[in-house]
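Subject: sequence -> structure tokens, single chain

Hey, anyone have a minute? Need the predicted structure for the following. Not urgent.
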Amino acid sequence: MKLLRHGPAGQEKPGALDALGQARDLSLLIPDFTPEWMSPAKLQALAAIDLSRMPLVPEGTRLGAPVAGVRQFVAIGLNYRKHAEEAGLEIPKEPVVFTKAITCIAGPNDDVELPEGSQASDWEIELGFVIGTQARNVSVAQALSHVAGYCLANDISERDWQLKRNGQWSKGKSFDGFGPIGPWLVTRDELPDPQSIALELAVNGQTRQQSNTADMIFPVAEIVSYLSQFMTLLPGDLVITGTPAGVGLGAKPTPVFLRRGDVMTLDAGPLGTQRQRVV
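Reply:
Had a minute. Here:
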């Protein structure tokens, strides 16, 4: 299934895409897509719903992030070789791990507000996934069984504050709106192989990033297993998996950063599309 949440910010209701790609409202049956709804049993129950009998979501309705109640937002850095190279950094031997504040999570098409004084805000298209069942010290072979589904993400980053404020990446990655997620969560049964998804991001119509999750250094299964060695992953936790080459910081000969009025468009095939206007 493709699960989504629709409505004004803070008032989203659960929904899903039907076979014709139309958004259907599930709020008469389900309170919201909170962490407990990410379990295999709950997702199987959702799959049994006859979506054609559910009310249509009015066209043009805002979409929010497809999961509510996220408790941990974990990110992986430098997970594509060419991106590490363009950043002038060594290829990591283990996943680079940092966190984003859950308050940065936004809908896939919400405006992105530049923080006051920002001169180096940047884009990063990424594959994201949501944990379905608690994961602690899990093997690579069992790792994907703990994943509820996959989503598109934009890991927006203020590079000066990420890299020049005493080494804490989260400082440049946690502003409100710096974590657009969605438009929907594709459940794991519908997308058994997360390592074959084409990713493309454009700014003002110019393609900046174009890659495939097959190029990830550490695939999803390895990331889940690795993280679970150091922390307990909880149902509903959101993990984004790194960005390919083509970020503004890596532009040659001069970096290119976001300015007010710019429009970012992202496409990840079955994971859907995003569009954010910079304000």
